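User: Hey, my collaborator sent me this sequence without any context and asked if I could get a structure. I don't really work with proteins. Can you help?
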Amino acid sequence: MRITTSSAVALLVGLCTALIGLGLYREAQLRNAEIRTAESEASNLARSLLQHAEESIELADTALIGIVHRLESDGLARRRSPACKAFST
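Assistant: No problem. I've predicted the 3D structure and written it out in structure-token form, which is a compact way to encode the shape of the chain:
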């Protein structure tokens, strides 16, 4: 059996096409995996930022409640103290 030049070229083109197709498929799979990883990391970061913001607001709220309580219990005389003046300026 003799292989002609055109048969050899067709076989070579077919093999190259198959290798390129497999390479593209592999790259697409890797890209999809990277996208899923990035989405997961972005979601975790957003959740972490939300938790940090909630804790910061809660801390500020606690501090303000303490200030309000002190002003209510000590009256306005405390507000005129030098420490309070320094705090307000």
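In plain terms: The longest helix spans residues 5-74. You can pass these tokens on to your collaborator as they are.
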